[in-house]
């Protein structure tokens, strides 16, 4: 069973998982990795989560204020060995609940076309594809999503 912990970007388990995420993204994104990497620094993240199974960190995610009503979902990752267990959906749901507790009404996010698992995850969790926002406008490899928090 996944145990979820609210934490921040200084958490060593969060940092460990984000390093694994970045290694995976460097391969998937190839030459585009440096462009995306500049928007994924964790030093500005105040709201992060780590999921544990048997005391081991296996999943993570974060939310970051985008505007007064919207949180941006960032740094979603599940260890390869732990995939297919619903852990990403659990982390995502917990992040949405946290955003609601903080009085935000919407979540947005960006993922890459070379991440079909992520695209499927967000669609499964009722995120709707929207126009690319912010720094992702005009970027063909980016897929942006949004979800109203009810």
From TrEMBL:
SUPFAM superfamilies: Acyl-CoA N-acyltransferases (Nat) (SSF55729)
Protein keywords: Acyltransferase, Transferase
Coiled-coil stretches noted in the UniProt entry, renumbered to this chain: none
Domain N-acetyltransferase: 5-150
CDD domains recorded: NAT_SF (cd04301)
Pfam family, one: Acetyltransf_1
GO molecular function: acyltransferase activity, transferring groups other than amino-acyl groups
Protein name per its UniProtKB record: N-acetyltransferase
């Amino acid at each position: 069973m996944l145990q979820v912990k609210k934490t921040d970007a200084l958490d060593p388990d969060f940092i460990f998982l984000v390093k694994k995420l970045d290694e995976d993204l460097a391969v998937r994104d190839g030459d585009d990795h440096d462009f995306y990497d500049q928007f994924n620094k964790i030093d500005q993240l105040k709201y992060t989560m780590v999921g544990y199974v048997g005391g081991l960190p296996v999943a993570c995610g974060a939310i970051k204020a985008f505007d007064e009503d919207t949180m941006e979902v960032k740094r979603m990752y599940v260890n390869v060995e732990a995939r297919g267990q619903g852990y990403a959906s659990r982390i995502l749901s917990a992040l949405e609940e946290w955003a609601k507790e903080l009085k935000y009404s919407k979540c947005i996010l960006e993922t890459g076309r070379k991440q079909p698992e992520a695209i499927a995850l967000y669609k499964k969790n009722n995120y709707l594809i929207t126009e690319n926002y912010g720094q992702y406008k005009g970027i063909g490899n980016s897929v942006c999503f949004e979800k109203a928090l009810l």
